[in-house]
Amino acid sequence: MREGAFGPEGLVLGPDGLARPAWAANDPLLREYYDTEWGLPVRDERGVFERLSLEAFQSGLSWSTILRKRPAFRTAFLRFDPDAVAAFGPADEERLLSDAHIIRNRAKIRATISNARATVALRASRPGGLAALVWSYAPELMPAPRTLGEVPTRSPESEALARELRHRGFRFVGPTTMFALMEAIGVVDTHLAGAHRPHPRAASR
User: Fold this and answer.
1) What is the mean pLDDT of residues 174-194?
2) Which ranges of the sequence are coiled-coil (predicted)?
3) Structural domain harbouring 74
């Protein structure tokens, strides 16, 4: 397979000789994200809350847009410390709406603040809090996609997780968004066969 070409597996060979899925093949920022972060296990509360928040902001936008704005998001939302964001009030909401470096969407900003409060509240009723709850929906059987067309966009587990999170007061947590979250933090493994990245769970053993 020549550089930049699509193989039968739906992978693209990069200039470094490594095969990646098309979404991670061309943009340097997405390539670095795929190589160093996507699909690797995230099990701490702050890390899961950040990813959940960014997935919500991504709705209707490209992930590359979110990655480019992530440093500004981290500054604006105090590195996604749930306790700090849960304490945000009307003045903080207006501050965020005037910040041109992030996504200025009132509904998503309010949802992030509301989700921080739900994350804090979850500690009292769910051992391990948000991270443990999300990881409890890891499937028994992993997808084994060979092409991008075989990668699902939702699953019974992501649908059940979305229902529970909504029941617990979370917003912007639909089943497709939750499946993307589960992929991003290693709960679900959808690496294509033949990609250079190893199975994240195998790599962590």
Assistant:
1) 94
2) none
3) 45-184
pLDDT digits (tens, 9 = 90+) for 41-63: 999 999 999 999 999 999 889 99
Residue 143 CB partners (closer than 8 Å, separation 6+): 150, 151, 152, 155, 188, 189, 190
Alpha helices in 10-155 (DSSP H): 28-36, 45-58, 63-76, 82-86, 90-97, 106-125, 129-135
The whole-model pTM stands at 0.91
Strands 11-13 and 19-21: antiparallel
Residue 57, helix vs strand vs coil: helix
Question: Tokens representing 53?
Answer: 């928040």
Tokens of 32: 């670095």
Residue 18 lies in a domain: no
Active-site residue set:
33, 55, 63
In a domain, 192, yes or no: no
Total Cβ atoms within 10 A of residue 29? 13
Q: pLDDT by residue (tens digit) across 185-204? A: 999 999 888 888 755 544 44
Provide the percentage of residues in the chain whose pLDDT is more than 90.
74
Distances (CA, A) of 13 to 63, 139, 173, 195: 21, 30, 34, 9
Number of domains in the chain: 1
Residue 36: inside a domain, yes or no?
no
Q: Domain for residue 197, yes or no?
A: no
